[in-house]
């Protein structure tokens, strides 16, 4: 899957410090269209930092990173829901679309809200939403952009079983249309089935990068 001419983003020996504290050193990775990369590791290993670097939100301390996309083609879902509580679900998406230079129609917005199970709450203020509903609205914000690369940092936080099924479906559909997904998860046993490859950050570095089958062997032999 990793061909020289198909990478959406290419990291070469990327390292990052926060002040004098090393987060990770020498991470090398290419993410190709149509692949799902599961990012694993203990708390504090640098998973969120890595996604922020890939999104262009942080400049790495060392190494090189190249993108074959425009910045608007990356959808980033971080820990915060980034929803405006006094705006309705529809208005939130209208605002975020305009922030990215888009003019989504009402039908397009309703369609995205329907995909995440929020169509019936389209005209409700986001401040009345549960954590899970707010998380799904934030996911809708990313889906509205139709991004080539989706960066999802623990997107299942606060989701019930039905909502996690929605998330699984959207990740699979992104892969089917040729988009790439880099997905931070704390539930490898559940989420491994949706991934093509696994990256493990551990002990200040890149402990493993390979297929899901090789990851299972690596874990068994650890």
UniProtKB/TrEMBL annotation:
PROSITE patterns: ABC_TRANSPORTER_2
Boundaries of every ABC transporter domain copy: 9-221
Transmembrane segments: none
Species annotation: Desulfonatronum thiosulfatophilum
Record keyword Transcription present: no
Protein origin, superkingdom: Bacteria
Record-level Gene Ontology MF annotations: ATP binding; ATP hydrolysis activity
Pfam families according to UniProt: ABC_tran (PF00005)
Keywords attached to this entry: ATP-binding, Nucleotide-binding, Transport
The keyword Translocase appears for this protein: no
Protein name (database record): Heme exporter protein A
InterPro entries (alphabetical): AAA+_ATPase, ABC_transporter-like_ATP-bd, ABC_Transporter_VariousFunc, P-loop_NTPase
């Amino acid at each position: 899957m990793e061909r020289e001419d198909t990478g959406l983003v290419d990291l070469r020996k990327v390292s990052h410090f926060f002040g004098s504290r090393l987060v990770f050193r020498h991470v090398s990775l290419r993410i190709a269209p149509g692949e799902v990369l599961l990012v694993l590791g203990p708390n504090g290993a640098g998973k969120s930092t890595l996604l922020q670097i890939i999104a262009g939100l942080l400049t790495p301390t060392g190494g090189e990173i190249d993108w074959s996309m425009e910045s608007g083609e990356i959808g980033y879902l971080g820990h915060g829901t980034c929803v405006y509580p006094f705006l309705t679900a529809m208005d939130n998406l209208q605002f975020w679309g305009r922030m990215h230079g888009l003019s989504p129609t009402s039908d397009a917005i309703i369609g995205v809200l329907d995909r995440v199970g929020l169509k019936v709450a389209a005209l409700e203020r986001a401040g009345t939403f549960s954590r899970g509903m707010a998380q799904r609205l934030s996911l809708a914000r990313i889906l509205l952009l139709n991004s080539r690369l989706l960066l999802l940092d623990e997107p299942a936080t606060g989701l019930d079983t039905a909502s996690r099924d929605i998330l699984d479906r959207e990740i699979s559909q992104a892969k089917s249309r040729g988009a790439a997904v880099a997905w931070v998860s704390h539930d490898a046993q559940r989420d491994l089935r949706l991934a093509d490859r696994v990256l493990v950050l551990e002990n200040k570095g890149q402990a493993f990068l390979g297929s899901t089958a090789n990851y299972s062997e690596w874990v068994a032999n650890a």
